[in-house]
Amino acid sequence: MENTFLSPTKGLIKFDQLINEIRDFIQEDSQSFYSVIIGSDSQTKKINGQPEIDFVTAVVVHRKGKGARYFWTKEREHRMYVLQEKIRQETAMSVELAGHLVPELRKVVPVSTYDFEIHVDVGPVGPTREMIKEVVGWVTGMGYTVKTKPDSYGASSVADKYT
């Protein structure tokens, strides 16, 4: 995995450093329980009349009741997406990162100390409501726990902050 991530506390880090940062944060308070969350969001704009879309994927490590750390990465594409394509691409990015992160995290952090979730930017209100079954089925079919709006803060708050 070649992605680089930005952290408000650590700056620019590579994927292997991300795993170590998550491990270290969890080890700081091993008596707490954690949620490790991946969520993606996107924003479309036009620059000089040309379409541009930023996809942001966030990794959040939530120490239940005691704060969190997060990391994010951004990819930019120069094309237009319809809403359904954007949601599918966001979900694909989260699932792909989970496929790399989860096995590495399991090597260094006991699974009993955290829950793993993928947060998707769809909800029961608004234009994405028709995609809930598709997206939730996809993510759960990959073996992950999925959260939708209003509980999908990894996508709708953290990743959204950097789109």
Structure description:
The chain has 163 residues and is α/β, with parallel strands linked by helices. The protein has one domain (4-161). 36% of the residues lie in helices and 34% in strands. Helix 1 (15-28) packs across helix 2 (83-108). The protein starts with a strand and ends with a helix.
The coarse overall form would be globular
Mean pLDDT across all amino acids? 96
Please trace the helix and strand order, writing H or E for each element: EEHEEEHEHEH
Largest sheet: 5 strands, mixed
- Structural class, from secondary structure content? alpha/beta
SS strand fraction: 25-35%
Number of separate domains: 1
Annotation field: number of helices: 4
The radius of gyration over CA amounts to 16 Å
Percentage of residues in helical conformation: 25-40%
In short:
By secondary structure, the protein is an alpha/beta fold.
List the helices and strands and how they pair.
Elements: E1 4-7, E2 11-14, H1 15-28, E3 34-47, E4 50-63, E5 68-77, H2 83-108, E6 114-119, H3 132-141, E7 145-147, H4 153-161
Parallel strand pairs: 3-6, 6-7
Antiparallel strand pairs: 1-2, 3-4, 4-5
For the structure shown, list the relevant keywords.
163 residues; 36% helix; five-stranded mixed sheet; alpha/beta; 4 helices; two-stranded antiparallel sheet; single chain; 7 strands
